[in-house]
Task: structure prediction
Amino acid sequence: MIKQLVPANLKEALEMLSKHNCYIMSGGTDLMVQKHVSTGLLPSFDKDVIYVMNLKELDYVKKDDNGNIRIGAATRFTDIERSPLVPEIYKIVIKEIASNNIRNMATMAGNIANASPAGDSLVPLVLNDASVILSSVNGNREVLVRDFVLGVRKIDRKQNEMITEIVLKPQELNYFYRKVGARKAESITKVSLMGGYKIENGIIKDLRIAFGSVSIKVVRSLENENKYIGQKVKELNIDSVIEDYSPLVTPITDQRSNKEYRHKVAMNLLRKFLEEVKGGRNE
Result:
């Protein structure tokens, strides 16, 4: 028989997870869709469900002594967007996620754990080297988001663990972000691209590129990025960069778009980003 577990606090939640194999539900906006059966029928769960949406210990946005922004796993997107501590680039992305009603319930932790290739918040998290804190009765461990998401609906979480916190690390970058969907918001992403760069005295000090919805997880290549750091920005060969990334972008054909269109759009967005970088906006 499926059990519904409602812990009174975080300690109790972790103790429950040490004894039960559970789905972890906060806002439920992704999980309820995954378990949807048919109109008029309740979602179907094949294991216990633990509800953590009311744990005040997991509902916060704060800055630590190192300048990192720490976001509790039960903090809603709406509250993240409203927080003066959260960097603007995350707010730009959040504003284009689903509808107001969804953002009032959905959490960033849930978006990460859902591990969808089209998960919008994953793109800035991966680009900016954000991490998650996983907690269990045995203690905590920290994992970069890019390593935590292993593939479609696959994450590096042990059965007795839960995400308790997201850690946003301070960055000094100029950003470029484009999301392509059926509408500006309230639609599943067909292709997205976020770029970040820093130029000093005409030299590329940092250059990062992350694609969403074009592979089994967010596409970011540290190997490629390291090739461009130290180059004179005016000598950056846009066509060569596109050649480097083209084989990494491997979208599928689905109800949203065909793979050829999505690949072409991704490369066009990359070109626009690189043209902005060559413009030397912060030289």
Remarks:
- The chain has two domains: 4-168, 174-278.
- The first helix runs from residue 10 to 19.
